[in-house]
Design goal:
It contains 8 helices and 6 strands, in the order αβαβαβααβααβαβ. With 160 residues, the chain is of the alpha/beta class. It has a single domain, classed as Thiamin diphosphate (ThDP)-binding fold, Pyr/PP domains (Rossmann fold), CATH 3.40.50.970. A 6-stranded parallel beta sheet has the order 2-1-3-4-6-5, with helices on both faces. β5, α8 and β6 form a beta-alpha-beta unit.
């Protein structure tokens, strides 16, 4: 299960210093835990492209940021992602909420977000893993550690 306190504990245990985000849908419920975290700083931005650029600057400054956004924001931030990940080769880590994932799986939603998220990540050549309700914050931490060990950009998609 992904609740705010368990996610914060996992991120702090991984050494994440900053969470750059725009709260949305399910991940928005993590805000109280993120806001009161003692070992990481929550930074709110206006647009997802800005989140990626800010995380890049933090990384270049020696910090360990994580970008936390929703899939629709990922779509908006494509040019920033392309430039930071592929041109500058920065190993940023993304946590992306996939809105309407479960409803889409049941055929109960016409939201196209779940349809396009994975193909877009593949087109942008950003490695990723999809975590659903069978997973926990420990799986998120494991993905973060694996990406750090490989020094590569990586995304975790959270089914919502």
């Amino acid at each position: 299960m992904f609740d705010g306190p368990s996610v914060v504990a996992a991120l702090e245990d991984c050494g994440v210093t900053h969470v750059v985000w725009i709260p949305d849908s399910d991940i928005g419920r993590w805000e109280p835990a993120l806001r009161t975290a003692t070992r990481l700083q929550l930074l709110r931005v206006c647009r997802e492209g800005e989140a990626i650029a800010l995380a890049a600057g933090l990384h270049l400054g020696g910090k360990r940021p994580l970008v936390l956004i929703q899939c629709t924001g990922l779509f908006e931030a494509g040019d920033s992602l392309r430039n930071i990940v592929h041109d500058l080769h920065l190993p940023l880590f993304f946590v992306i909420g996939v809105r309407s994932y479960y409803a889409h799986q049941r055929g109960a939603s016409t939201d196209s977000c779940p349809v396009f998220t994975e193909p877009i990540l593949r087109a942008w050549q950003l490695p990723y893993v999809l975590l659903d309700n069978r997973h926990s914050a420990a799986d998120l931490a494991a993905a973060y550690r694996q990406a750090q060990a490989k020094n590569q950009a990586f995304a975790v998609l959270l089914a919502e």
